Amino acid sequence: MRTTVVLTCFLLAGLAAGCGSSKHSTATTATTTTTSGTTQSPGALQAEAQSAATGDIPDNQAFVVFTDAGAGYAMKYPEGWAQSGGGKQVVIRDKNNIIRVVVRTGALPTAAAVRRELAALPGVKVESPPAPHTLPSGSALKVVYSTESAPNAVTGKRVRLVVDRYYLAHNGKLAIVDLGTPQGVDNVDAYRLMIESFRWR
Questions:
Q1: Chain segment 69-99, per-residue pLDDT in tens
Q2: Domain limits for position 82
Q3: Is residue 78 part of a domain?
Q4: Under a CB-based contact definition with an 8 Å cutoff, are residues 164 and 144 in contact?
Q5: Do 33 and 67 belong together in one domain?
Q6: Are residues 67 and 116 in the same domain?
């Protein structure tokens, strides 16, 4: 009887240890995935087919300054646009006019690295290859890509989003700024004002 009790105790202890080990392994895997996810390039911007049509940003549009003290930058954006996110990733949008800024550690990438990065993103078409670009805040890299939204549930139509992506670096930090516009909408002047207003702080 005593032998049976001892064996049962050992068996239960072994199972408990096994469960604890499994739990620890799962947590480690999740942490690793999360950590590696934060070091990867942000995915491509996509429009929402259900969103109402977006027009050009008017010439008399008022702009305000968005300051992200934590990420260390400031940039103008159209007054009244909705903000979401925070920390090192912020999205500011009006329907399918979309601004996204992601800040991470790193240096300015090469054009070849950007080409590889975009080639790995599904549904992305490069419209203009990465090339050096000069901004008031310093040297940058610019690439233009496009994506298509999922089809509208009622009409079946898709929205093609054309995105100007800029890479800007300063003191070990890299900002990736995406400025997205539905195809056929002219936001060139407004988006130029925004990206040229970008300042590291």
A1: 999 999 999 999 999 998 789 999 999 999 9
A2: 63-200
A3: yes
A4: yes
A5: no
A6: yes
